[in-house]
Amino acid sequence: MSEFAAELRARVDEVDAELRLMRQAFDEHSVEVLSGRLENLLRIAEQHGVDVRHASDTVDAPTGGAA
User: To 10 degrees, what angle do helices 3-24 and 28-47 make?
Assistant: First the structure.
């Protein structure tokens, strides 16, 4: 695994964890911001052919579909 792929996966995992916490806290602004970050990370991963949804695929994708 490349360093790029490893870093991208780590960032997705971090945002997923933060997003779960903010959803539990009913912090709608943070949920919106983090959802945007997650969308961007998933787009970058897709563009580079990196599968980032390994362990974190239980979190709802921000666009309402599976990544």
Answer: 160
Would you give the end-to-end CA distance of the chain in angstroms? Answer: 20
Q: Which tokens sit at 48?
A: 């580079």
Res 53: pLDDT: 76
Residue extents of the structural domains in the chain: 3-47
What are the tens digits of pLDDT across the range 1-35? Answer: 799 999 999 999 999 999 999 999 999 999 999 99
Average pLDDT over residues 39-56: 87
CB atoms within 10 A of CB 12: 24
Alpha carbon separation from 33 to 3, 5, 37, 54 (Å, rounded): 26, 23, 6, 23
